[in-house]
């Protein structure tokens, strides 16, 4: 079939297998062109198929030569329905890992469940022995608790007071004012249950108990802070409460891993277009302005550049800021640079529908959005008839 993008708001319901493969290949090429990382041998990435998790897995495998297990929640193609982008990305990654002689397995299913944790542990025991690095990069709208069976939904809302600011419809370029009513206490509780640290902690408890963590094992999860204008909807909102919980979990995991000489970190990453961030009000306009300013200053990075920097400079480098007591790593340092933020804020005040193409990188935002699903990718014939059904090699 000929596969075209079909969008509904910030969702694209189709994905292109050849385009996704090309996107993965270009991330692999990027890390292969950098200095090799003297890093981990066996890596588990939970939430490994798109965004920061995919870039982490690529950096581990092709930047450090690690064997990798990827856990993710994606759908295979069915009839005329394409697979999800993460499925195609993982198929391409497995293919390349096999060609390179790297051991690699993929597990598709709900990372929040005990069944998937047990399946992963069995795989580690059978094929890997122990794991040196656990990356936790799950972003999900829902979670069913493995013990109580309660299903929680996360919301992205301010807390206590309503929040109004500019937002962007990136399809039309319309900049408008949006007001978001505050979350209830119950919504805050549920968002923390989905996006906080409990599941990360459960993974680490179970991996430790099963004896599959190597001595000196490291674990890292991802967070975001961002500028003051987005604080009410992000850092001080429901999702920020969950991120506080995640960051506190890192401290608890540091204690838990002490017996193994292990370390736990939260890396604060840059704002980037991913399937998760495009769902947040206000943030896409901020990201568009940020892209423009960072590109002008030669500082722009995508997920793969961020993750290469995280691995090479922080997790497996000599950055003194992260080597000892602090469990917080900042790879959002270039985004948060004073000159970058001053320029973004100056533009923010002026931004409206008729100048968004000049003041912000709307085209770059759109391109990145479509590329998440394999579209708008150079070197791919989008008019070609293509089979949407693709197998993931080494799917367990
Ligand atoms: P993403 O949507 O691209 O990736 C989410 C991953 O989680 C996918 O691989 C998906 O398959 C997986 N997943 C979702 N539900 C799952 C489940 N139940 N079981 C197994 N896997 C599941 O998101 P992202 O933007 O890369 O976010 C990853 C992390 O990075 C999040 O913690 C996010 O808050 C953080 N972060 C994102 C940004 C940003 O701007 N995008 C910035 C800083 C930090």
TrEMBL record:
<feature type="binding site">
    <location>
        <position position="243"/>
    </location>
    <ligand>
        <name>NAD(+)</name>
    </ligand>
</feature>
<dbReference type="GO" id="GO:0004318">
    <property type="term" value="F:enoyl-[acyl-carrier-protein] reductase (NADH) activity"/>
</dbReference>
<keyword id="KW-0275">Fatty acid biosynthesis</keyword>
<dbReference type="InterPro" id="IPR050048">
    <property type="entry name" value="FabV-like_NADH_b"/>
</dbReference>
<comment type="subunit">
    <text>Monomer.</text>
</comment>
<feature type="binding site">
    <location>
        <begin position="110"/>
        <end position="111"/>
    </location>
    <ligand>
        <name>NAD(+)</name>
    </ligand>
</feature>
<feature type="binding site">
    <location>
        <begin position="47"/>
        <end position="52"/>
    </location>
    <ligand>
        <name>NAD(+)</name>
    </ligand>
</feature>
<feature type="domain" description="Enoyl reductase FAD binding">
    <location>
        <begin position="327"/>
        <end position="386"/>
    </location>
</feature>
<dbReference type="Pfam" id="PF12241">
    <property type="entry name" value="Enoyl_reductase"/>
</dbReference>
<dbReference type="GO" id="GO:0050343">
    <property type="term" value="F:trans-2-enoyl-CoA reductase (NADH) activity"/>
</dbReference>
<feature type="binding site">
    <location>
        <begin position="138"/>
        <end position="139"/>
    </location>
    <ligand>
        <name>NAD(+)</name>
    </ligand>
</feature>
<feature type="active site" description="Proton donor">
    <location>
        <position position="234"/>
    </location>
</feature>
<keyword id="KW-0276">Fatty acid metabolism</keyword>
<keyword id="KW-0520">NAD</keyword>
<feature type="domain" description="Trans-2-enoyl-CoA reductase-like NAD(P)H binding">
    <location>
        <begin position="2"/>
        <end position="78"/>
    </location>
</feature>
<keyword id="KW-0444">Lipid biosynthesis</keyword>
<feature type="binding site">
    <location>
        <position position="224"/>
    </location>
    <ligand>
        <name>substrate</name>
    </ligand>
</feature>
<feature type="domain" description="Trans-2-enoyl-CoA reductase catalytic">
    <location>
        <begin position="81"/>
        <end position="316"/>
    </location>
</feature>
<dbReference type="InterPro" id="IPR024910">
    <property type="entry name" value="Enoyl-CoA_Rdtase_cat_dom"/>
</dbReference>
<dbReference type="GO" id="GO:0051287">
    <property type="term" value="F:NAD binding"/>
</dbReference>
<comment type="pathway">
    <text>Lipid metabolism; fatty acid biosynthesis.</text>
</comment>
<keyword id="KW-0443">Lipid metabolism</keyword>
<feature type="binding site">
    <location>
        <begin position="272"/>
        <end position="274"/>
    </location>
    <ligand>
        <name>NAD(+)</name>
    </ligand>
</feature>
<dbReference type="InterPro" id="IPR024906">
    <property type="entry name" value="Eno_Rdtase_FAD-bd_dom"/>
</dbReference>
<dbReference type="Pfam" id="PF07055">
    <property type="entry name" value="Eno-Rase_FAD_bd"/>
</dbReference>
<comment type="function">
    <text>Involved in the fatty acid synthesis (FAS II). Catalyzes the reduction of a carbon-carbon double bond in an enoyl moiety that is covalently linked to a coenzyme A (CoA).</text>
</comment>
<protein>
    <recommendedName>
        <fullName>Trans-2-enoyl-CoA reductase [NADH]</fullName>
        <ecNumber>1.3.1.44</ecNumber>
    </recommendedName>
</protein>
<keyword id="KW-0560">Oxidoreductase</keyword>
<dbReference type="GO" id="GO:0006633">
    <property type="term" value="P:fatty acid biosynthetic process"/>
</dbReference>
<comment type="similarity">
    <text>Belongs to the TER reductase family.</text>
</comment>
<dbReference type="InterPro" id="IPR010758">
    <property type="entry name" value="Trans-2-enoyl-CoA_reductase"/>
</dbReference>
<dbReference type="Pfam" id="PF12242">
    <property type="entry name" value="Eno-Rase_NADH_b"/>
</dbReference>
């Amino acid at each position: 079939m000929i596969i075209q993008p079909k969008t509904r708001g910030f969702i694209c319901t189709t994905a292109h297998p050849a385009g996704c493969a090309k996107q993965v290949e270009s991330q692999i090429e990027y890390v292969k062109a950098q200095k090799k990382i003297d890093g981990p041998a066996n890596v588990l990435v939970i939430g490994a198929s798109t965004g920061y998790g995919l870039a982490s897995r690529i950096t581990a495998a092709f930047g450090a030569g690690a064997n990798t297990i990827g856990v993710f929640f994606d759908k295979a193609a069915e009839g005329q329905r394409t697979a999800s982008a993460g499925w195609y990305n993982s198929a391409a990654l497995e293919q390349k890992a096999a060609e390179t002689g790297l051991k690699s397995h993929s597990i598709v299913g709900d990372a929040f469940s005990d069944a998937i944790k047990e399946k992963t542990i069995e795989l580690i025991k059978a094929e890997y022995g122990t794991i040196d690095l656990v990356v936790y990069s799950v972003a999900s709208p829902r979670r069913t608790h493995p013990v109580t069976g309660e299903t929680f939904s996360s919301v992205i809302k301010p807390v206590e007071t309503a929040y109004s600011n500019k937002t962007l419809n990136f399809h039309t370029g319309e900049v408008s004012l949006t007001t978001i009513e505050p979350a209830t206490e119950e919504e805050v509780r549920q968002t923390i249950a989905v996006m906080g640290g409990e599941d990360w902690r459960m993974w680490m408890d179970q991996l430790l108990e099963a004896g599959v963590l190597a001595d000196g094992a490291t674990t890292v999860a991802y967070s975001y802070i961002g500028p003051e204008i987005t604080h009410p909807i992000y850092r001080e909102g429901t999702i920020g409460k969950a991120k506080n919980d995640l960051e506190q979990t890192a401290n608890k995991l540091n204690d838990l891993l002490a017996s193994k000489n292990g370390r736990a970190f939260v890396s604060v990453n840059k704002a980037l277009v991913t399937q998760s961030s495009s769902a947040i009000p206000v943030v896409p306009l901020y990201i568009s302005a940020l892209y423009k300013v960072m590109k002008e200053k030669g500082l722009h990075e995508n997920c793969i550049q961020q993750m290469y920097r995280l691995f090479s400079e922080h997790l497996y480098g000599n950055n003194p800021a992260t080597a000892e007591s602090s469990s917080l790593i900042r790879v959002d340092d270039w985004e948060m640079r004073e000159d970058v933020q001053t320029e973004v804020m100056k533009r923010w005040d002026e931004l409206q529908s008729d100048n968004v193409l000049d003041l912000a990188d709307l085209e770059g935002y759109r391109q990145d959005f479509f590329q998440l699903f394999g579209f708008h990718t150079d070197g791919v014939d989008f008019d070609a008839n293509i089979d949407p059904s693709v197998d993931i090699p080494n799917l367990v």
